[in-house]
Amino acid sequence: KLAAALARCRLRHNHSCIECFLPETVRKKQEMALKLPLYAWVNTLKSSLDEVQSVLRNAGFSQVKSIEQLKGHTFCQDPHCGDTLVFPAQLKAQLYFSKLLCDHKLIAQDKSCCLGPNAACSLLPEEGDVLMVGCFSGLTVFHVASLISQKHKADSKNQPVVYVCVNDCTEAQREKLRHTVSIMGCKNVKLMQEDFQSLDRGDKRLQKVRVILLIPRCSVSAVSNPVEFILQENGDTDLLQDLSRGPIAQSKLESLVAQQKKDIDHALNLPIRLAVVYSTCSSYPEENADVLNTALQKARDCPRQKGKPKLTNFRPIPPPFSSPDHGEAAEETEPFFMLEPTEFSNGCFLAVVDRKPDPAIQEAPRDLIARANAKGLFDGIGVNQKKHHEDAGGAKTTAQALCSQAHVSACTRSRKRQAKGSIRHQELQQPSQGKLQVPCSIFHSKQECPPTPSSSFKPHKSRPAKFPTKTSSTLRSAVPPSSPAAPVVRPRRTRADAQKPVVLVLPVLNFPGSFQPQHSCRGSFPGRWKAPQHHL
């Protein structure tokens, strides 16, 4: 009955075959799908690129430089993914039953599914885990795990972990994913049953995550063979009805875009320290660049809230494999990477959002202590340090003053011994000569003071100078000048908040070596001399 109904429908619309009922866009995609070459990446856990190429050469294959040269028993290396080999479309059936694919040394998978794992693993540092979120097959998970194992082959004990969110998958898809991971021998893969939106920054499993590979559900509008692709990559089978009619329904597209925005927003909120890789197989800008630009703009405009990180340090960067010599089909609109669907590959979109490091803020130790005191972390540390410095300064001043006093006394005793050896000492206090004028030197005073006459005294009974017990300034006692006419040097002024002024009165000592004896008075003893009166 079904065949008869289809025959009557064909005659009614004057179509020669069933495919003629499909829209023009769908028929063009089918024609390109028949010409699509076979892409297969090398399983580095069981083999290597050189070993696989050697096996292919021994089997009669020859290597060419570009995909356009594929013809007959030839193969070439993909220009974007270094671990992926490309074969002509007519060899698909032969290669599927070859020993390389049966032993899982070569894994056949579409190129659009290989770009994301290669980009994520190339950005991953030596110590860092990967979080995979979205819609993908177990082969994609295994691809990421094998790339990480190859990158950290030297340190097999401490390999990064691949965390996979499987909450959006059905039970059958989860079981298929577990089976694929098991038969491939992946030991660094851990499945997470929680919903991606429920993961928060405090999750201990995310503390070492450096890269998030986000492959959300999309319209698959850039894929030429959507049926095969959806069945292999655990896609949404409900999209097949829309894809058979041509363009996808607007309501379905809006639903997909809304979910994609939630995923990328939440990915930027997680405590990753490196990058987010976003990959789709859609040709609609709403699912590609618009989603990224909206998420980044929202992060810049959103004010920083309490308990939430600021997202302004994210920026899109070119993918690590995008360069001008990577094929003509690659449309490299910086900073995104896009492949248009052609007869050589399906289309895809890939973007890398990198986290810029926070600028280092250098804070002075004094400001750090002041801020700590303001918070009460180090109570009194600033006051104690200030008091300690002041006490140290006072002790240093007192020591300097005592040293100066000792130096003055030593000089006085030395000159007295010289005077006694040359001439007899004369009494300094004589009524006929009057009072001697001695200079005064005021330390730490804001106003100048005129010379003050000092009381008579004998050299061996000089009055000791009194010094303050606590002072923050430095007292400098000058050595008595050899000449009475030498000016008194005023010490450097210190702060106005110093201690009380101190007056030092020093005697003027006159010796025969400094002045010639005066003989103006008759009958004066030639060995006696008078001290001249000078005002200092």
From TrEMBL:
Region (Disordered): 300-328, 414-494
Binding site for S-adenosyl-L-methionine: 168, 195
Compositional bias of kind Low complexity: 476-489
GO BP terms, alphabetized: methylation
Domain of life from the UniProt record: Eukaryota
Secretion signal, residue range per the UniProt entry: none
Ranges of residues in domain SAM-dependent MTase RsmB/NOP-type: 28-356
Single GO term (MF): RNA binding
Basic residues compositional bias, start-end: 414-423
PROSITE patterns: SAM_MT_RSMB_NOP (PS51686)
Sequence similarity: Belongs to the class I-like SAM-binding methyltransferase superfamily. RsmB/NOP family.
Protein name: NOP2/Sun domain family, member 7
Organism: Nothobranchius furzeri
UniProt lineage: Eukaryota, Metazoa, Chordata, Craniata, Vertebrata
Gene name per UniProt: NSUN7
